[in-house]
Amino acid sequence: MPAPPFPYRLIATDLDGTLLRSDDTISARTRAALDAAAERGAAHIVVTGRAVPWTKRILADLDYRGLAVCAQGSQVYDAGAGKLLTSVTLDRRVGRQALDLLEKEVGTVAVAASCDGLDGQVLAGPGYRVHDGPLPYVPVEDRETIWQQPLNKLYIQHDQLDDDGLAKAARAAVGDLVGVVMAGEGIVELLPLGLSKAKGLALAARRLRIRAAETVAFGDMPNDVPMFAWAGHGVAMANAHEELLAVADEVTAANDEDGIAVVLERLLSRP
């Protein structure tokens, strides 16, 4: 007798702090659980705040050939074909206006910018603290340089406000101009207004003819809140931010303890 279909037709996973362990690898156990779910009919979509250039390496390591939602939903990427299917850019005049208004309220912020496209660079302006690791960036001495090419988002930092405080201040000052998300430690982002992981995931799922109710989503940060609101079932990692824990349907083990595999294995064991 063939095994029953997987309870969800779509598994949507964030990358950092969720699918990836602290060493930026994916465990053999999690890979096996995703493969087993795929064998029973479930598609897997990576949904990440990283833009495509910062995501391609991870997808190649996974031998991932499907759709990926990148840059907080602004990009839908076909990994098998190596093509961008959709790309939404931030109006640079609006971005500049938002930064000016924000700095009137909180003082100088350090800024980095994610350039649009398959090979778009991340430009780090003066004072912006870039996380150590394998993700490439280009330091620029003059902040004006970031406005010279299409962007999908801006990163901002403040020397006194913490991430939550900066995100709160930005929403109050410029939330009517841009979207504001906290996507990880030291990562507060300004996006095109109305953009979210949920918007990008809905576009990708529509291409697969899969409904929100047929989706289980995994995440760890406040930028995953819209995705949880869209999906049929939202699973937060034990290491998740309190904002996401508050809206999760379920909490699993931490990313370093194979939290995704724990849930998938349970679902796979259902008769």
Quickly give the structural class.
Answer: alpha/beta
CATH 2nd-level architecture of the largest domain: 3-Layer(aba) Sandwich
Q: What is the residue-averaged pLDDT? A: 94
- Rg is 18 Å
What is the name of the CATH class of the largest domain? Answer: Alpha Beta
Overall helicity: 25-40%
Enumerate how many helices there are, as a single number.
9
CATH fold type of the largest domain: Rossmann fold
- In total, how many domains does the architecture comprise? 2
- The ordered string of helix (H) and strand (E) elements is EHHEHEEEHEEEEHEEHEHEHEH
Question: How does the overall form come out from the CA principal axes?
Answer: globular
Write a structural description.
The chain is of the alpha/beta class and 271 residues long. It folds into two domains: 10-87 and 196-269, HAD superfamily/HAD-like (Rossmann fold); 96-191, 2-Layer Sandwich (Hypothetical Protein, Haloacid Dehalogenase-like Hydrolase, Chain: A, domain 2). 32% of the residues lie in helices and 24% in strands. It is built from nine helices and 14 strands. It has helices at residues 15-19, 28-39, 52-62, 92-106, 163-174, 197-208, 225-230, 242-245, 259-268, and strands at 10-13, 43-47, 67-70, 75-78, 83-87, 110-115, 122-124, 138-139, 151-157, 178-184, 187-192, 215-219, 233-236, 250-251. The strands form two sheets. Strands 5-4-3-2-1-12-13-14 form an eight-stranded mixed β-sheet, with helices on both faces. The protein has a six-stranded mixed β-sheet with strand order 8-7-6-9-11-10. A hairpin with a 6-residue loop joins strand 6 (110-115) and strand 7. Helix 2 packs parallel to helix 9 and helix 4 packs across helix 5 (163-174). The model has no long low-confidence stretch (mean pLDDT 94). Pfam families: Hydrolase_3 (PF08282). InterPro entries: Cof, HAD-like_sf, HAD-SF_hydro_IIB, HAD_sf. This is HAD family phosphatase.
